[in-house]
Design goal:
Length: 453
């Protein structure tokens, strides 16, 4: 054994001790340790193009027939979970991104709450709503949701907290020390952490004991992921322990994780861009070859998940991702670090019998940038009385906003005092500093450029 590996093993011990001292959940530390040891053993997290084949001809929701009885029975045994740990720092936010206003004074949280309350009425179902928050989003989220006291379901929490783990120095895998801002020494372990938290918090057992069999998980910034009794009924009848809602990729989805078949064992897997070597990026972004991407709308069979986690003491050993960043995301000259993460959808290869289903694009309306925020705020989508976003335009326009002036939400709000009509737009490119302060109707391929371009 080389001196370096001995040093790295000691650094793992230092990382474990630092997390124990900070009160990190022991199961989360075990997950982190397995990932660290995999790196020491020479296991990398990449998935090579030569080792996979494209997924073809997924079953489509449009062709699925589910009886009213099966749909009703399944949705009555379903719980809804929203991933809500993000602060939206890439858009300059310092609070939960779900507090961002997307339609008038309605935030993501308002619309999610109203979608759930409406679904409870039409399905005559309990349909609990629970948020997976971070330590940075929990207080603000729970405070805001006090305006919806009817959301709380008897004997169930309105949120649970995701874990946090240490960032590692990229040069020697030691836990980073950053006394100028100690909070930057920590990072979330990715949304694959949901399995760890459901297990170690006891929430999984609690839900099963309360009579729930199924869970639908989605991102809080995806307002297309409304409760669906049809999907619940399909999932229940499938007998699968796990299912991904997949969509057909478009040119806007080149960088998103896609489904594939591993040649070694014919297993369906999920490949993220961070798991792809540079030479394979062309194939990774080939939307005609790899047609299906993961919407991160996930269905879980709770008793099956409990059984799987029981066998491994809560450590599902998901494929991990080495996310390389600088310790201070705003400081490109600060030390390089590795954040060990896992994706929720990667459990498709760990739960025997897991599957995927193609769903309409309407179930995937994420807001990761101000480009997508502008779309969501515009008349490209109609917000219906049941708080669904229905596409009004024939096509969704491609939006490109100048990051110098529109990337941060404060700058975006200063310049979009009035949201223009985009229903007739094919593409919109804004370069330079433009202010929209009066109603406007844009049509076709639209470009704004000023002397700064």
């Amino acid at each position: 054994m080389s001196d370096l590996s001995s040093l790295e093993k000691n650094n793992l011990k230092l990382a474990q001790e630092k997390m124990e001292k900070a009160g990190v959940d022991p199961v989360a530390i075990n997950v982190f340790s397995k990932q660290y040891q995999a790196i020491l053993a020479g296991r990398n997290s990449t998935i090579n193009e030569l080792d996979i084949e494209p997924v073809k001809n997924l079953a489509s929701l449009e062709n699925i027939v589910v009886s009213d009885e099966d749909a009703r029975n399944a949705i009555q045994e379903t719980v809804i979970v929203k991933l809500n740990g993000g602060l939206g720092t890439s858009m300059g936010l310092e609070k939960a991104k779900s507090l961002l206003k997307v339609r008038g004074d309605l935030t993501f949280l308002d619309i999610i709450a109203r979608q759930i309350l409406h679904a409870r009425k039409i399905f005559d179902a309990r349909l609990p709503l629970i948020f997976m928050d971070s330590i940075y989003t929990s207080d603000d989220t729970l405070e805001y949701l006090k305006k919806y006291p009817e959301l709380a379901e008897k004997d169930l929490p309105l949120d649970f907290l995701q874990n946090f783990v240490v960032k590692l120095r990229a040069d020697n895998l030691s836990p980073i020390d950053w006394p100028t801002n100690p909070t930057l020494e920590w990072s979330p372990p990715g949304h694959g952490d949901i399995y760890t938290v459901l297990w170690s918090s006891g929430l999984l057992k609690r839900l099963i004991d309360a009579g729930y069999k199924y869970m639908h998980v989605s991102n809080s910034d995806n307002l297309g992921a409304i409760p669906s009794a049809t999907l619940a009924g399909w999932f229940a009848k499938s007998g699968a322990p796990f299912a991904i809602e997949a969509c057909k990729r478009t040119v806007n989805d080149k960088k998103g994780g896609h489904l594939a078949i591993r040649k070694l064992d014919n297993q369906m897997i999920l490949r993220e861009s961070a798991q792809t070597v540079e030479n394979d990026m062309g194939a990774f972004m080939d939307i005609n070859k790899h047609q299906y991407f993961n919407s991160n709308n996930i269905w879980l069979n709770l008793p099956s998940l409990y059984e799987a986690l029981f066998k491994v003491d809560g450590v599902l050993d998901l494929p991990f991702i080495q996310n390389r960043k600088t310790v201070d995301p705003t400081g490109p000259s600060t030390p390089q670090v590795i954040q060990l993460e896992s994706a929720m959808g990667s459990a498709i290869e760990k739960l025997e019998g897991a599957t995927a289903i193609e769903v309409p694009r309407s179930r995937f309306l994420p807001v990761k940038t101000t480009n997508e925020l502008l779309l969501t705020m515009s008349d490209v989508f109609e917000l219906t009385d049941d708080y669904c976003f229905n596409q009004s335009a024939n096509t969704i326009p491609a939006i490109k906003l100048d990051e110098r002036y529109y990337k941060l939400i404060a700058d975006f709000n200063k310049r979009f005092l009035e949201i223009p009509s985009l229903i007739g737009v094919t593409s919109l490119s804004i370069c330079g500093d433009w202010v929209f302060d009066k109603p406007a109707k844009l049509v076709g391929d639209v470009k704004f450029e000023d002397s700064n371009c």
